[in-house]
Design brief:
Blueprint (H helix, E strand, L loop, with lengths): L1 E4 L5 E5 L4 E4 L4 E6 L2 E4 L4 E6 L2 E3 L5 E4 L48 H4 L1
Antiparallel strand pairs: 1-2, 2-3, 3-4, 4-5, 5-6, 6-7, 7-8
Length: 116
Amino acid sequence: MIELFDREGRETAFCRDGQSIYLWNGTPAAFIDADEVFAYSGRSIGLARDGWIWDEHGERLLFEFDAVGGPAKPKRRTKTAAGPRRANPARGIPVRMPTRPAPSAAWSRHAFADLI
């Protein structure tokens, strides 16, 4: 299981199959197609690369334990157990980004849950 943490080191999301991202409570949140992350509506959220999920500006939303580069990662807080995965909703037609952002060394001002 890939665990994803926010800029404060809180467990925020997880991914078990390399494609479906769930919020920590088990709610389906997004899916990955190639390296682009989409809300289930089909709207692009950002990119998944090098252990990071970036927003549409290249700023960092979430990180894996072994993420490479980017801003300083906070100390991870004490973890709780992830919730049971709920059924994924139907996927909307992905609307790809017109241009891909360059990676930023900054944290996004958005929270991942606000983008889904």
